[in-house]
Structure formats: structure tokens, C-alpha cells
Amino acid sequence: MYKRTGLVGFTLTALALAMASERLSAAEVANTEHVEVVGQAAAIDQALKEQRSADSIKSVVHADGVAQLPDENVAEAAQRLPGISVERDQGEGRFVSVRGLGPDLNSVTINGTLVPAPESVRRAVALDVLPSELVQSLSVIKTLTPDMDANSLGGTVDVQSLSAFDHKGLFYTGSTEASYDKNTHQTSPKFSGAASNRFSLGDGIDNFGVAAALSWQKRDFGSDNVETGGAWDFTNGAKLNEFEQRDYDISRERAGGGLNFDYKPDDLSSYYLRTLYSRYKDTETRNSTSLEFADPQAPGELGDAEAKRKLKNREETQEIQSYVFGGERMLGLWTLSGQAGYSQSSEDSPAHIAGATFDGGDFANSGFYDKDKPRPIIGSGFYDARNFTLDKVDWEKQNTKDTEKNLRLDLARDYDLSGYASQVKFGGKVSRRNKDNDLEAWVYKDFDTLGFTDDQLNLSQFQKGNVDYRLGNYGPGISPSSIKQLIGGLNAADFYDETESRVNDFTIREDINAGYLMNTIDIDDWRFIAGLRYEGTEFEAKGTGATDGVFTPTETKRRYHHWLPGLHARYQIDKNTQVRAAWTKSVVRPTFGQLAPGFVIDDDEATFGNPDLKPLESSNLDLGIEHFMGRAGTVSAFVFYKDIKNFVYNTDLAGTGAWTNFSEAHTYANGDSAKLYGLELAYSQKFDWLPAPWNGLLVGANTTFSRSSADIEGFDSASGANRKRNISLPNQSDTVGNLMLGWENDKLSLRLSANYKSAYLFELASINDKAHDLHVDAQTFVDFSARYSLTKNLQVSFEAQNLTDESYFVYTGHRSYNGQYEEYGPTYKLGLTFTHF
């Protein structure tokens, strides 16, 4: 892990290197050997040109000449940008965080239309589902102009797909790849391709373009895990109540495609149709063992422990569809543009084993060692399948669907204001979003009353070999097919869990009507954009609550309005240096899980969502300077400040108001206000002014420092009074950084990169129990890639991901105490790409 100060020093001293490069005389530059290749520098240079001319503050990743992003997926490509980090799933980048704010506080658009989220409780969209062959560029827009949706606090991730007009004529590419997962010793295939061409329609020449892309990958991999979930007792030292070992075996299949059309009948008009379909299927088998101690135990202590072995086996399919039709027409000094978008995301989990539990009874003289990676101290009987008996089987199926439809119309007019070039722009947008979730659950138990013998329920009848567990001895695995065979002969209606099924079903509707007015004016070296956006929201949530087994329908309807002014300014100091400033307002709705209308009240315990939560509102201030030099060269510094109202946190309302006599009342609440501020530094340069072979050197570095502060309030049962405490915003890392060292010539391209993210608050405990807050530990991922051109059109590639075998570690209060530890291992890839353009 590299130090913060080292990365800052590197970024700042890069300015001296930039100045040195610019001192080369014109003759020296003319005599320097340049190799014009399609590679890292070309992609960075394209991105910087787009970033430089943008009205917003944004960072860009651009596809290279073969329409492939330089990383495994879109999320991992985005993490190379300043201020960007990712949440990972099984070691793979999925969700994007911007400037320390969690993925649910940002939005994702494809070709300008919002992408809804497949998961039932989230707004964040997993970006690893997008086929990279269809992506031409990815932008993270950090300051929103009034003509943009205001639904992001950190930034908007906008994906622009491939167009036939990105290439001069016929273009096609095809790739094949094999990846090797060191953890599971599995080799997996991938195939992809893209093609585009232009055609002449009517009297036009090359005025109609078609672009298509397909991608398919099947990846077999896994991980090894041990977790306590925060089950530590800190009243008398640090003692553990229970922990669990987990082994994941996963097969992940991705398939995606897109077909895009562009038509430019004349110089005054253009029309397009963008389509995208992506399918993501996970088949997961999770074996686990657990030990629950009769009394909390310190490492090395021995006592009685109850042992269990468990199985989860499920198949989950996510689909994303996006269709965008739009165009632009110039009418004299007026420009009319519009877009209609339809997107749908879904997640389908057919009937599956949500949990099969085998009870092993009590084991004497048992304990654990190692506080950050607990391992059992236990007799050999723990590893004998004959000592475990089937206790219950949780059986579930779930389907979630999220649909968003929108229609946008914009009208702009160029005019002269006292000799200064100006443009007024106004327009409106309507969007309709519906999220539906349907869960069905069954609990099979009390098998002895159904006529099953002890022998029939013994784990030895369900055993499937021994589990390959990297973190120590594990013992027998469990066969999913044997579990399914057992319960398949039972009457499912007798085991239906009505409470679990009904309270998790919901329908949430969000209708947003928006309008805006903005004006742009260029005054000498200044460019100003001022405007106002209005967003009116109609919200409706329908669900079911359960009070001691009695069901009640719930319905919440609300309307709220937001007026969102904005001001952007850009000043050109010289031809290569500019200053930017922006003051903006934005609004983000809480997640669907937080807004869920269902509730469960069981005696003196309650769990419920909160559909009355207010949206998060933020006032944002950004100020920075950018200097561009040479090819793929820039150095920049930005400061930012966000004043966030109504941030959402989990809380326990037991002992207050209607929940006075309850021991637990878990829900979500709005905080008063939170502050986020930070510094963002970035540097990139191709050293083509140096003599060979150093002229192939490419260096990039960026780092973002941020701090947040928020006050939360809750009832403290120990003191019988309300208490407050100060926290950092959940999912906010104080430091995010990247360091990249590359080298390339006309044949070979090499890149070594490191991505760092500091620790962050993951989950809050009760108001008076800071010691049980869960934090995710710092992570540094190191990757290497190499590409070699065998011919002009044929390229071989090699990639090594997670070279240092970085783990995922969640700790409880202090770094010494495990919440969760997970290992993935490195992945190695070998690929071959053929390209014609």
C-alpha cells in the first residue's frame, strides 16, 4: 500500500516535469521520434480533449481504437479516474462511488437516459454488466448543469455507446479470451465482437451508420470467507459470541449486445437509435459452518459451543434493457433536440435453497484463535458428517422489476448580447418509474414429525465431498440436489411463510416532471452558465405490514418540489490553462429498501422501512484549475464542498414515541445535515519529448482527499434519553488514489496500475455503541496488462489482476476485531484480438 504523502508528492512534483517538457524548443520537438499508435496515450488524449471542452467538471475514460475499454468492465475502468472508487462483488468491480459518496447517491445513464437498478433495495446500477465492446466513452460528471437530471450527489456516470461515425468506414473487431482463477484453479472463456459501417441513403454520402456489438463470458471462480457479523462482547475485554466460515463456488455468465443506428440526412439535422441488452446470470453455492459459544470467549479460551453446517444454493439472473431514440435539428438560430427513452432492469431468482441448516449439537472444549481471521479450536467430530442432522430448509423465489420511461425536449437559440456570443436554452422532461418486488418464502422444518428417520436426515446422506477451503480445515460439503429431492416430495403449501412473503412485496412509483431555463455567455476569456431547474415528484408506495401475524395493507402518497439553481464559470488563463468554478443544487431520493412500505411487529420487536423519508438535498461548491500539456498530458487540482440535508441512516427507535415499550424497532431516519469537503489532484503525461526508449513512457496519478461529518440522533436505552453522536458518512473513504506506469511503442503496450481506497464506515450500530460499528478496511489493488501487435490487425494480450491477492476485510469498531474477511486470489487472462479499421 502506497502512502498518502507519497502520492500527493508525486502528483504535485509532476508539475515540474510538465514545465520541463514544455521548455523543449520547436526544433527539439521536430527532431523527436513520434510513433503514432492506437493505444493508451491515444485513448487518454481523446478523453482529455472531451474533458477540456466540457461545460461541466467531469472526468472521462475513452475507448481505444478497437472500441475496448482498458479494464475488465466499465466499473473498473471508471475507478482510474480522479475521485472514483468501486464497490466489489467477489473481488470484481461493480458499483461506482464518486468523491467518497456511496453508489446509491449517484446515477447512471446510457446515452443520456437513466438506467434503473435490478436489485430490489438499491438505486445503484452494477456497471460490470455492460459489454465493453459497445462503450465508446464513459464520463463521470461531477457538476450538473440545469439541463441535466439533478439526481446525483457525487456525480452522474454517463456511458456513451459506439457509433458508426466514430470510424471513417468499415470497422470490425473480434476477441477471444481465457481467464484463470488461481483461487479455484478454474479456466473460463470469453468471446466478443463489434462492427460498424456507413451507408449512403438518398442523395447523401455515408450519411447512415450502423454499429453492433456482442459479448459473452462465462467465469468460474470462488472465494473463502470467515465472519463474525460484529458478534463481539466488549463488556469484559473482547470476547466472541459466534462466527461462521463460508466457501463460495460461483459460475457467472454474462451476455450482452447492442445495435445502434445514426442518420445524418444533411448538415442541419441528425437522428439516432441506441439499443442495449445485457444478461447477467449467477449460479452460487455457499457452504458454511458456524460455532455459537455458550458464553462469550476470548481467543484460546475453551468452552461449550453449538455447531451447525449450512448450504445456500441459488441462481440469479439480472437483465438490463435500454432503448433511446433522439435527434437534433437546427432551425436558423434555433436548435431543437429531443429524446425518448425506455429502460427496464430485472432480477429473477427462481425457487432455490435460501438456507439448509444441519444441527451438530454441542461440542465441549471448543474455542477459536486469531481475532481478525477466527479459526476453530474443536475436536475431530466437527468434521464428521455423521454428527450433523438436517434441522430446516428455507426455500425462496424472488422477482424484481424496475422500469423507467422518459421524454425530453430542449430548445436553444444563439444570440448576440452586447457583442458577446450567448445562448439561451430551455426545455422539459417527464419520467415515470415503477419498481415492483415479489418474494415467496417457505420454511421446511420439524422433519421428525413428518415420518423421516434420523438416518434419512443425517448429513452423511447429503454429503458432497470435502470443501476446498483456503483458510483452514473445513470438512464435508452439502449436495443441493439431495436437499431438493428431500423436500420435493412434500406439500409446499404446508410450509408457506406468509409473513416473510407478504411484507417483502411492494410497488413503488416515482413520477418526476422537470423543467429548466439556462443561459450561456462568453465574455472575453470567461464562459458563464446560469440557470434554474425545477423538479416535481409524485411518490407512491404500496405494501403489507404484519402485526403478530395479522396483515394490514399499507399505502403512502406524497408530493414534493425542488427548485435547483446553478452557476458555472470557466476562465481561460492561457491557451492551455483554465480555471473552473460551479455552485449547484442536487437532490437524491432514498433507496427502495429504505422506502419499503412493509413492516413486521412481533411482540416487542419491530422492523420496518420508512416511505416518509425525505429526499437528500445538497448544495455543492467546486473550484479548480486545469493545465494541459502535450499529448495525453494534464495536471489539475480541484476543491469541493457539499452541504447535505436529510441524509439517511439506520436507527433503532425502541423506547421512543409509539415504540416506547419495544426492545427493538429497527428502521431508517433522516439526519439533519452532513458536510463533505475535499481536494482532488490529478496528473497524466506521455513523455514523448524524451529520447528513445523513454519516449514511450506514460505516467498517471491522481488522489482525492475528503472528509465528512454528520450528526445522528437516537434513543439510548441505558440512560433512558436521546443521544447524539458524530459520524462520517457511510461508504465515504477519506483517501482514494491511483498510480499508473505505462510504456508503449508501435508494437508493445505495457501498464502497471495500483488503485487505493482507505477505510470507510459500512454499517452503524446503535446510538451508544460505536464499538460495534462496522468498517471496511483499506484496500490496494495492483494490476498488470500487456498487449503486443503480432500484425497490423492482430493483437495478443495478457492481464494479471489483483497481483497482491488483496482481501476484503470488515472490522468491528477496531481493526483487531473481525466483522468479515474474504479472499479471492489473483486472476490471469490471455486474449487474442483481430481488428479491421
From TrEMBL:
It is found in: Cell outer membrane. Residues 1-26 form the signal peptide. Belongs to the TonB-dependent receptor family. It comes from the Bacteria. Keywords: Cell outer membrane, Membrane, Receptor, Signal, TonB box, Transmembrane, Transmembrane beta strand, Transport. The lineage of its organism: Bacteria, Pseudomonadati, Pseudomonadota, Gammaproteobacteria, Pseudomonadales. It comes from Pseudomonas canadensis. This is TonB-dependent receptor. Coiled coil: none annotated. The keyword Cell membrane does not apply. It is a multi-pass membrane protein. Gene3D superfamilies: TonB-dependent receptor, beta-barrel domain, TonB-dependent receptor, plug domain. Residues 51-156 form the TonB-dependent receptor plug domain. PROSITE patterns: TONB_DEPENDENT_REC_3. InterPro entries: Beta-barrel_TonB, Beta-barrel_TonB_sf, Plug_dom, Plug_dom_sf, TonB-dep_rcpt-like, TonB_rcpt_bac. NCBIfam families: TonB-Xanth-Caul. Residues 357-803 form the TonB-dependent receptor-like beta-barrel domain. CDD domains: ligand_gated_channel (cd01347).
